[in-house]
Write a structure and sequence with these properties.
This protein is an all-beta fold. It folds into 3 domains: 96 residues, Immunoglobulins (Immunoglobulin-like, Sandwich), CATH 2.60.40; 84 residues, Immunoglobulins (Immunoglobulin-like, Sandwich); 117 residues, Macroglobulin (MG2) domain (Immunoglobulin-like). Helices cover 2% and strands 54% of the residues. It contains 1 helix and 28 strands. The protein has a 5-stranded mixed sheet with strand order 21-28-27-23-24. It has a 4-stranded antiparallel sheet with strand order 3-5-8-7, with no helix packed on it. It is rod-shaped, with a radius of gyration of 45 Å.
């Protein structure tokens, strides 16, 4: 409301008077600014802010937004100029394409008196190779002759195909690079500590863990007594001896499991014992004794020609914990 003071003449004497005149109020629109083209990588933490101001200092400004990634939190409190609104949080993985994903964010301020203004932010989220998360594996221990099997697993935070690797593989161990399954049955005389590095890979990124595999030994020495070979034309029983050392003793052996093996065939002993010594030249150090009769031996070596043959045979057995053991030795067979 504006006032105007005027001098009014009534007759001869002027009279001073104040005349009040009203004028229309003109609202000034607010303004808002925001970052135009920011970029960030997926799974990164970001914060974006827009600031609004209004020349009409008493107006209450309210800022809103549309188009932002759903994983970002929007914080904005109404109030007088200046006023700031913020989008903040962690960008999630997008569709996995190589091209970046673009978000068009529109910030709008309203002054409560029909005045508005807008600003745009074009946010580019870059696709990057995120290393897979490898589940802990830990060190392993296994007995000779026992099977060690475990699965290496990992998750890919942003998807993608996970491939596994294991280096170096010990002995006859196997490893499936697709499923992550490791399997190994350490043979006799393989006691020791083996270092293996397992990795999970997605694209160009990987996560690895190096572990040790400790193989507990069970050394076996097989001998025949007398040591003049086998004569299949005689009716004498044949005795074989098993001397154990390393990480196992006679008490670990499952006696009924002892077998003599040749050419893919096996025969059971007529008897076995943990005492007695038919071979004094070995100083009585044998732990186990297995006795085989000629009928069984003839069936085992039936494929050999008549005469004398030098062959390699195996004495195989199990430990009570289920581990498979064997000991090879050369034998002269007369037929």
């Amino acid at each position: 409301m504006n006032s105007l003071r005027a001098l009014i003449h009534l007759g001869v004497v002027p009279i001073a008077a104040t005349v009040f005149m009203s004028a229309a109020y003109a609202n000034i629109n607010p303004t808002i600014t925001a970052p135009p083209t920011p970029s960030a990588n997926e799974l990164s933490v970001i914060s974006l802010s827009a600031t609004a101001s209004d020349a009409d200092g008493g107006d209450i400004l309210t800022i809103t937004q549309t188009g932002a990634p759903a994983s970002l939190s929007f914080i904005s409190l109404p109030g007088t100029s200046p006023r700031t609104a913020t989008l903040a949080g962690t960008l999630t993985c997008h569709d996995g394409d190589l091209a970046p994903t673009t978000y068009t964010i529109t910030w709008t301020v309203n002054d409560g008196a029909s005045g508005t203004a807008s600003a745009q932010t074009t946010l580019k989220v870059n696709n990057v190779d995120i290393a897979p998360v490898l589940s802990p594996i830990g060190n392993k221990t296994v007995n000779e002759g026992c099977n060690l099997t475990f699965t290496v697993s990992a998750t890919a935070p942003c998807g993608g195909v996970i491939t596994f690797s294991a280096t170096p593989l010990p002995g006859t161990a196997s490893f499936n690079t697709g499923t992550g399954i490791f399997s190994w049955t350490p043979p006799s005389n393989s006691a020791g500590v083996y270092t293996v590095t397992f990795c999970a890979r997605v694209g160009l990124t990987s996560s690895c863990e190096t572990i040790t595999i400790t193989v507990v030994g069970c050394t076996a020495t097989v001998s025949q007594c007398p040591s003049n070979g086998i004569n299949l034309t005689s009716s004498n029983l044949e005795y074989f001896y098993l001397e154990l050392s390393g990480g196992c003793t006679v008490s670990d052996v499952d006696l009924p499991s002892i077998m003599l093996s040749y050419g893919g065939n096996m025969i059971s002993p007529a008897s076995q014992a943990t005492s007695g010594d038919k071979c004094p030249n070995n100083n009585g150090v044998q732990d186990l004794q297995a006795c085989f009769d000629k009928t069984s031996l003839n069936s085992l070596f039936g494929s050999l020609p008549n005469g004398t043959s030098n062959v390699t045979v195996k004495l195989v057995w199990k430990l009570k914990n289920g581990c498979n053991m064997e000991g090879s030795f050369n034998l002269e067979v007369k037929k």
